[in-house]
Amino acid sequence: MTRFTRIGLVGGTGREGPGLALRFAQAGAHVVIGSRSAKRAGQTVEQIRALVSGARLEAADNAAAISTCEVVFLCVPFAHAAATVDAHRAAFQPGSLVVDVTVPVTFEGGPPRLIDLPEGSATEHLRRRLPQAVGLAAALKTIPARLLAELGTPLDCDDFVCGDSREVRQRASDVLRLIPGLRPIDAGPLEAARTLERMTLLAIGINRRYKIHDARFRLVGLPAVSS
Amino acid sequence: MTRFTRIGLVGGTGREGPGLALRFAQAGAHVVIGSRSAKRAGQTVEQIRALVSGARLEAADNAAAISTCEVVFLCVPFAHAAATVDAHRAAFQPGSLVVDVTVPVTFEGGPPRLIDLPEGSATEHLRRRLPQAVGLAAALKTIPARLLAELGTPLDCDDFVCGDSREVRQRASDVLRLIPGLRPIDAGPLEAARTLERMTLLAIGINRRYKIHDARFRLVGLPAVSS
User: Which one, of A58, A57, A99, lies nearest residue A75 by Cα?
Assistant: First the structure.
């Protein structure tokens, strides 16, 4: 991770994108906000510039956010994630890092529940669709989107990062470490996304039960992570 | 939960039982240590008495621990849990509370993994076997057994409690609250055991990856639980 790494947000104008862009922009990173509509991306860029002076931001369509960035966060709602990856398959650059932050939770028909996926998790579902030459990690699954957008509130929690390989998890963690108050923790192979997505569901249930909004997790027993 | 509640530990001489007995005994609770061998139960009682003066402890066979206690913790290894419940089905008292602390993790053939269960979790697997008139909760799944036994080390973490009903979770939480440094959190219906068992697997992986021993969880964003 260098100051010159370009961080692309696919679906950067949605629920999670603007908050993530804010946090990265505040850290001085170069952020490319991608959207199906370049116009909407431009509006989000303006909103963030108003909050973070000197922010290094670009508006783009999703294809450009994918093809011009070394690190690409998939911030689209899970329902559109597979279609978005399929539509832009050719834009992903070999050697680039994709970070899946989607959560396959549905609120339809009763209490929130996980969407049943044959691969076991949203991340594994997307792995099958992404080019082999792209590294895939899952992160930020358990971090409330709402909280990311509240710049004044410290995140004060840990982020469990799983991925294809130790090297991929390491790269994703280096990027996430730009965000103050967020400690990335190596959660192992991609399969751990099954756990992280369930933990999000657990946090949603706890939010409802206790009438709070930002339930999230910290790992106890790991004094300091140098990694 | 009153001072007079009897807490029974089925398989109380195993990996998790003695630590749990220690913590409850230290809190002044009345603990019945059950074992297949009443002699081994007696030895564990003596060991705990040597550490906690004035401890209110009884040794028993598993059947007596089940039939004479209002709250029964299932502390046997998961591999023996179903058989133990089946063997003692008639001993469970209507209205009593059973707390499942087992984790269906196997270390055989490669990295630790969850045992595949048709019901989705160990707790749901046991629910099918227990009498209907018994309340079932899952708790302590993510608390390292080793840590329970280290009386000098504060647990300093949260415990996610799921169960049949809000009332069952409440009763289990009242018992768990006896243990200092452990905050019970209502994790919802029994199905949440699927998440808690996966979180244990996650903690085991993190322990190995970071060469630590007691990875566990705290929930951030829930300032104080009055429940």
Answer: A99
CA atoms within 13 A on the CB side of B163: 27
pLDDT of residue A221: 96
DSSP code of A143?
S
Inter-chain residue contact B214 with A220, CB threshold 8 Å: yes
Which string of b and e fits A49-65 if b means at least 16 CB within 10 Å? eeebeebbbbbbbbebb
Contact B14, B70 (CB under 8 A): no
Segment B104-120, tens digit of pLDDT: 999 998 899 999 999 99
Candidates A148, A141, A139; CA nearest to A99 is A139
Record the pTM: 0.95
Chain B residues closer than 8 Å to A205 by CB: 187-188, 192
Domain count, chain A: 1
For the record, the structure tokens of A128 come out as 């099958």
Residue in B187, B206, B209 closest to A202 by CB: B187
Q: Is residue A172 part of a domain?
A: yes
Q: Which residues of B24-38 are buried (b: 16+ CB within 10 A; e: fewer)?
A: bbbbebbbbbbbbee
Q: Domain range holding A99?
A: 6-210
In 3-state terms, chain A is what percent helix, strand and coil (to 5)?
35, 25, 40
Residues across chain A: 227
Q: Kindly state whether residue A137 falls inside one of the protein's structural domains.
A: yes
* A220 domain-assigned: no
**pLDDT band of A159, cuts 50, 70, 90:** very high
Say yes or no for a CB contact (<8 Å) between B220 and A221.
no
Q: Report residue B141 as tokens.
A: 């799944």
Closest by Cβ to B195, choosing from A186, A202, A213? A202
Instruction: Tell me the shortest Cα–Cα distance from B127 to chain A, in angstroms.
Output: 20
Mutate to test the interface with B, among A198, A211, A216, A226 (most CBs of B within 10 A): A198
Q: What percent of chain A shows pLDDT beyond 90? A: 92
Alpha-carbon span A213 to A206, nearest angstrom: 9
Q: ipTM higher than 0.90?
A: yes
Task: Give me the CATH number covering residue A197.
Answer: 3.40.50.720
The DSSP-derived string for B36-51 is SSHHHHHHHHHHHHHH
Helices (H) and strands (E) in chain A, counts: 8, 11
The answer to whether the Cβ–Cβ distance between B217 and A220 falls below 8 Å is yes
- Structural domain includes residue A194: yes
Q: What are the pLDDT digits (tens) for A17-73?
A: 999 999 999 999 999 999 999 899 999 999 999 999 999 999 999 999 999 999 999
Question: Do the Cβ atoms of B126 and B74 come closer than 8 Å?
Answer: yes
